[in-house]
Amino acid sequence: MTSHLMPPLALTLVDIGRILSLAVIAGGLLWLFLRAIKRKEVERRVIFLFIFVSVVAPILFPTVFQEKATPIVKDVFDKIESLPPGSVVLLSYDFDPAMAPEVQPMADAISRHCLVRGLKIIYMCLFATGQGQFTSTLENVIKPEFPDKVNLVDYVNIGYKAGNEGVLNVIITDFKKMFPTDVDGVPYDSIAVFKGIRSCKDLDLVISIGGGKPGIKEWILFVGDPGNVPIASGVAAVVAPLMYPYYPAQMLGMLGGIKGAAEYESELVHHYPQFKNSPTPALLMMGPQTLAHLVIMAFIVIGNILYLLERKKGRKR
Amino acid sequence: MKRNVPLAITFIVGAVLIFSVFIPPMENWGEDFTLFFDIIAVFAFFLGGGNLLRVHLTKLSRRKQDWPYSIVTIMGFLLMLAAGLFRIGNPGDINASLTEQGSLFQTIYDSVFVPLGSTMYALLAFFVASASYRAFRAKNREATILLVAAFIILLGRTPLGTIVTGWVPESFSILQIPNLAIWIMNSPNLAGQRAIMIGIGLGVVSMSLRLILGIERTYLGGDDK
Amino acid sequence: MKKTTLIIMAGVTVLFLLSWIIKALALEGMQEDYIKKAFLVTFSAFLTLSILSFLYRDNPFYKFAEHLFVGVSAAFWMSMGFWSTIVGNLIPRLSQNLSVFFKVHYIPGDFNFRFYIPVILGLLLLMRLSRNYGWISRWSLAFIVGTTAGLNFIRYLRSDFIKQISATFVPLLVDWQGTGHFFSNLDLSASGQLVMMLANWTIFLGVMSGIIYFFFSKEHTGMFGRASRFGIWVLMITFGASFGYTVMGRISLLVGRITFLFRDWLGFNI
Amino acid sequence: MRYILIIFSLILITFSAVIGQVDPVVTDSLAPVPAPPAPVTEVAVSDKANDHGHALIIEWKRSLDDGAGSNAVMLYEIFRSEFPDSAFKMVGSVPLGNERFEDIGTIEKESRDYIPDNTNLYYRVDAVTIDPVVRTSSEVYGPVQSYSNWFHKGRVPVLTAVLIFGALMVYFVSVARKGTELYVRPLAGIAAVDDAIGRATEMGRPILYILGLGTADMISTIASFTILSRVAKQVAEYQTELIVPCYDPIVMTVAQEVVKSSYLDAGHPDNYKEDSVFYITTNQFAYVAAVNGIMLRDLPATNVYMGKFYAESLILAETGAVAGSIQIAGTDEVGQLPFFIVACDYTLIGEELYAASAYLGREPIMLGSLKAQDYAKAAVIVLMILGLLAINVHLNAFIEIFKVVD
User: Fold this and answer.
1) What is the pLDDT of residues D167-208, one digit of tens each?
2) How confident is the model at residue D225 (pLDDT cuts 50, 70, 90)?
3) What is the mean pLDDT of residues D92-105?
4) Which DSSP string do the residues of C94-107 spell out, in sequence order?
């Protein structure tokens, strides 16, 4: 999947497919461009074909683009980088399966980052269905990649409690009251992660991953602001624009949509080469997205060239 | 009877609901009326089903263009009705969920309804592209502004935005395309949305008032005779 | 029918059967009713491709899918509406006997007879099918229109009107610490003071000129006309931005369908 | 029987032994049973304001052992009774640190959490430790009554807006009735409709009118009916074919009436064909699939989209463009406006759709209401400027006026 890191001469089948499809698209666009210069409209079916190819090709022959983290994403990354090992981070899974394709990659990447930095993670969720999503992280990230990390010592899952912002309102003063045990019934006081943690105010960082209500907004209003707790978030693209007013004063950083996730994955691989073989679903999804966006932008440009030439000709006549 | 009774009904119902907002003991009326509305809507679905049958049976009997396809519609309709309304192929009791995994209804839903619906929806990806080729043209100043805004956002949402303008120093970072895209979403976009919203809000309010007062009555049709 | 049409039909049928068999062989041993499962996956893929074929041009496969979709969906909503609203919400409030029959929990209440109102109105609505008494369905319509007019009136006035106005009260001087401070820290950083202030100015002027554009009873000339022109520009930026922003979501939909075709149907490991 | 007796006595012996001997030891080895905490004080109960009754608010001063003292209090439990000294029933609990609880009941007498109005009620609050048995009750507060309010004070701004707007409307409608000429700015989209009908006639091709996905009660759909009636009138005069596929069965019945009476008004009732307005299905994409088919098969000269549209807007408009139709759209669904604006020839933006229907009606009453709307908009602008000034000089009292209590 990440074969772009291989020596350039070792061409795999995937590489050939990738080059071929890129050549097809590039050649096609050139052809379109030439036709536009000759002032010839092109049939819409050709346009459809372009989109189809530019979405299918990166799915079949995954192409990973290098993403450079934008400041708002970089802020989250740097915050985790700056925490000394042993710090405690809370990751809240505030989403359901429907939102998962967009935000699960964020949760996985951040978990990976925290664990490799030797931070301790408290997992919880404000959505009842977030539980199942944590299982996905546990099975796909923690167990295979960090076999030496021990439950209750390096991370703990305290699960879901009903009550939305009510839950937050309690844990800002006292964790134990809301979560007397973890999901498996282990009492609070015998969980090593919680040593020295009484409330959210003792946490070094809180990250809410989600895209609905309750979500990051509630975390900011009920925990971040009153408790002066550093808050970061990963949210679906729909919500991201609405959250900008909180950045950077009340929220130190944010991963917005699949692009934010991809930037984070990219940054992680950049700093920790050992992850270069870990799955990077968001980066993979950016392939079709980028190519399709590129093709659409090319259409706009070519369409306008055609239009301007036509108009010029019209004026002459 | 044909005109005055409906106008009176609209007036009374509308006025009562407006008052109920300011008078707490009437608060639940709004909820009730919404529930009534839902129930009437189900009757409307039956009306629709009857109409569908009528349209396609007419097509069939008059052998209109493409009439064989009407058989497909009628068969699909009857099959789904059998599975849904009469619970054929639905294991479990009368109070079992209609969407139980493995029931005929759910099977049709999963393997006919979902692929058809989501593929129709996915056609949008193609049409977005063809619209941007065909119609996104700088015909005048307004169209150009629209085009440029769209272009910046498109660029800002992909790695290309960072690649093209990533070199811009921090003190000019608003000129980095991704930041510019965000700024557009947050300021002019917000302003435009809000202006339209206020206008629509006013329009709805005044139309509602006209309806309640019986000034606007096109919805009743015309023939008084 | 034309000869080519027949050939294409036959070809598709063969491909369909082939896909069914291959899929069944692939699923054999892994799932219980693999023959049925293989058929369903193949059929879903067939419908998906039929709809996509519309992009080329209108054709019998699209017509088939379209007509099937229309029939199935009409019955879908009838069934869902009946079981969830009539059985779920109405019957428990109307009749104990029917509640027992449908095995739903009866909700007793003093004023439950009020739920006969929607039943009567619903039946009046069905009178529409009659030629002579169709007009009586207007009574139900009047009720529906009155209800939403009443509800909308307040709802819009409150959330789209009053609240939106007060949301536009923004400080025009963000973080103001004096002119000297402002000029010494002047830059175009995305989180800088100037950009923040510019944002608030844009919001205020944008909303105002946008509203001016929607003035209908005054000619758009002079100063007023200029403001209205600025308003339409702001609106155009809004539309362009939403267009650009939506593209990503639309592409994701297609990615979803293509993943279905290649992974669930053709069995690619992606 | 004998065995049972033996076992029973054995159990008794063991039990008494445990109680007699072991019990004190056990208490010592485990965490000590907390001492009963200090009670809450100053319990006060009042009726909840601005509601329909059946709800009260309980407030108190927290126990001295809550977050201080012996730190023993974990939560507070609130009890209610209709008698001062008995039959107390727990109605809720809140964690420590809280000093307020809203006891909100239902109106329905049969319901478990029914709270009677205008009846004497008594409340008490218990401070509860980690061991639910160890607790201290407060003094009983009461009697207190819940009652309903006849006016929602939090909604005064809304009422003010209603009254002002209503007055404006009534005034301008009466002005218009007197025959004063009111100017209305021409809308490009409306003029285009007339041209497009002429074009369809020339080409001998039908006109497709889409009312959108709205139901008959939506304002945009109602506005669309008015425009449809105008279109139908002209179509009847020119004797062009009109196709109106409907998404909602009620909308269809109304559309039928509207079209029929327009043909009647135009003096061509015999040209009206019953099946020109027909129902397709109430499912977004199935409807779109069918309309797409109609566009490519019947090749309408003009497509008019007026009403509520969602994601299908672009599918329709692009397919229409393929069929080579002139397209005129209007919707109040902000999210879909960009697509119509890009893909159609003319688009009525948001409020313009409503204005168009008033404009086409040409009745003085409609124009009067447009004028009232414009005055309301002017008021908005004035208020916005005032609010801006207020917030920049920190005059919060002005902003408070706009606070709407839900």
Assistant:
1) 888 888 888 888 777 788 888 888 888 888 888 989 999 999
2) very high
3) 78
4) H-HHHHHHHT----
Tokens linked to D10: 């054995």
- C130-161 burial: b if 16+ Cβ within 10 Å, else e: eeeeebbbbbbbbbbbbbbbbbbbbbbbbebb
Angle at C98 between CA C96 and CA C101, to 5 degrees: 115
State the average pLDDT over residues C99-124.
82
**Domain ranges across chain A:** 3-64+282-316, 71-277
As a whole number of angstroms, the distance between CA A210 and CA D2 comes to: 67
User: Buried (b) or exposed (e) across B176-209, using 16+ Cβ within 10 A?
Assistant: bbbbbbbbbbbbbbbbbbbbbbbbbbbbbbbbbb
Alpha helices (H) along chain A: 13-37, 44-60, 71-82, 100-116, 130-137, 143-145, 165-171, 175-178, 216-219, 225-227, 240-243, 257-271, 281-316
| B125 contacts chain A (CB < 8 A) | yes
CA atoms of C191 and B159, how far apart (whole Å): 21
Q: What are phi and psi of D206, to 5 degrees?
A: -75, 170
CA nearest neighbour of B207 among D158, D223, D160, D216: D223
Length of chain C: 270
- Interface check D296 vs C, CB under 8 A: yes
Q: Which chains touch A (3 or more CB pairs under 8 A)?
A: B, C, D
User: What CA–CA distance (Å, rounded) separates C85 from C90?
Assistant: 6
- The Cα D332–Cα D345 span in angstroms is 17
Cβ contacts of C31 within 8 Å, gap of 6 or more = C37
Position with higher pLDDT, C22 vs D26: C22
User: How many alpha carbons fall within 13 Å on the CB side of residue A9?
Assistant: 0
**Do A257 and C248 make contact, defined as CB atoms within 8 angstroms?**
yes
Mean per-residue pLDDT, A240-247: 68
Return the residue of D nearest to B113 by Cα.
Answer: D286
Give Cβ neighbours of residue B110 (< 8 Å, ≥ 6 apart). Answer: C40, C44
Which residues of B are less than 8 Å from D334 in CB distance? 193, 196-197, 200
Take residue A192 and report the two structure tokens written for it. Answer: 């090593």
Q: Is the pLDDT of residue B109 over 60?
A: yes
Task: Select the highest-mean-pLDDT range: A229-233, D98-102, D254-258.
Answer: A229-233
Which of C66, C169, C257 to mutate against chain D (most D CBs within 10 Å)?
C169
Which strand (E) or helix (H) includes residue D328?
strand D326-331
Q: How many Cα atoms occupy the beta-carbon half-sphere of D393 within 13 Å? A: 8
Residues 6+ apart with CB under 8 A from B218: D222, D225, D226, D229, D258, D357, D361
DSSP D114: B
Is the pLDDT at D92 greater than 80? The verdict is no
Other beta carbons less than 10 A from residue A8's beta carbon: 7
Q: Which domains does chain D have, with CATH numbers?
A: 41-144 (2.60.40.10), 153-180+366-400 (no CATH), 188-362 (3.40.50)
Rounded to 10 deg, the angle between the D351-361 and D219-238 helix axes is 50
Residue type for A22, please?
Answer: L
pLDDT band at D403 (very low <50, low <70, confident <90, very high): low
Asked if A97 has any chain C CB less than 8 Å from its own CB, the reply is no
Contact between C39 and C22 (Cβ < 8 Å)? no
Residues of C in contact with A241 (CB under 8 A): 245
Q: How far is the C-alpha of A35 from the C-alpha of A244, rounded, in Å?
A: 43
Residue B184 to residue B174: CA distance in whole angstroms: 10
Question: What is the pTM for the complete model shown?
Answer: 0.80
Q: What is the pLDDT of residue A156?
A: 93
Which CATH class name applies to A71-277? alpha beta
Would you say A178 and A164 are in contact if contact means Cβ atoms under 8 Å apart?
Answer: no
Average pLDDT over residues B102-111: 84
